[in-house]
Amino acid sequence: MLELPITAITAAVAGIMLVVLGVTAGGQRGKSKISLGTGDDEILLRKVRAHGNFAEYTPIALILLALAEMAGTNHALLWAVAGLLIVGRILHAVGLIGSVMPCRVVGMLMTVSSLLLGAGILLWP
After folding, report:
1. Are 101 and 95 in contact (CB under 8 A)?
2. pLDDT at 1 over 80
3. Whose CB among 13, 30, 47, 111 lies 3.0–4.6 Å from 25's, allowing a Cys bridge?
4. 125 — pLDDT class (breaks 50, 70, 90)
5. Please, which residues have CB within 8 angstroms of residue 49's CB and are 6 or more apart in sequence?
């Protein structure tokens, strides 16, 4: 049986984060009574985009991490990629929802770094 403990832990954390972001957006929908779209509610827009952005970037990063782990990449490097992804996604969500531009920018840079590092590992073994 193929075991991918680093990817499994990272995916589990990411799954919880996705649910939290979804519940956050859904809660704001209830408060604003907007069932579709975001209307004029900027807070709802921010929460919906934080959830959407997470859903857009995280799956490919997890795929890259899993492939790198399957290829036998050094665990320290894999944990670094996983850490960049998770911390980056947290910072980006906090920055986007809370209008904290430095967190948003650093979070996106960390996320993109995890993607590029994961891709680089696979392209240059």
Report:
1. yes
2. no
3. 47
4. low
5. 96
Q: Give how far the C-alpha of residue 54 lies from the chain's centroid of Cα atoms, to the nearest Å.
A: 4
Judged by DSSP in three states, 10 sits in helix
The per-residue pLDDT for 117 is: 98
Q: Single out the residue of 80, 79, 54 nearest to residue 4, CA to CA.
A: 79
Residue 80 CB neighbours (<10 A): 14
Predicted local distance difference test score (pLDDT) of residue 2: 75
The answer to whether 111 and 88 have CB atoms below 8 angstroms apart is yes
The dihedral formed by the CA atoms of 28, 33, 39 and 40, expressed in degrees to the nearest 10: -70
CA dihedral for 25, 54, 95, 75, sign (positive or negative) = positive
At 23, the pLDDT band (50, 70, 90 cuts) reads very high
- pLDDT tens per residue, range 41-97: 999 999 999 999 999 999 999 999 999 999 999 999 999 999 999 999 999 999 999
